[in-house]
Specification:
Structural class: mainly alpha
Number of strands: 0
InterPro entries: DUF2970
Largest sheet: none
Organism: Rheinheimera muenzenbergensis
Helix content: over 70%
Protein name: DUF2970 domain-containing protein
Keywords: Membrane, Transmembrane, Transmembrane helix
Order of helices and strands: HH
Number of helices: 2
Pfam families: DUF2970
Distance between the termini: 32 Å
């Protein structure tokens, strides 16, 4: 999710009126990551 970009692009990204889209995306990606790890663990132990 974190990429190399110009300073101008970074400022444009973070000048959005609300941080809510970033928070929601963070929660979704975190849940996806944790669920993927759980599935891998259950698959290996099965």
């Amino acid at each position: 999710m974190v990429g190399v970009q110009s300073e101008k692009q970074r400022q444009q990204d973070f000048s959005a009126s609300s941080p809510v889209p970033f928070i929601i995306a963070g929660i979704i990606f975190t849940l996806f990551f944790v669920l993927t790890l759980l599935l891998i663990v259950f698959w290996v132990l099965a």
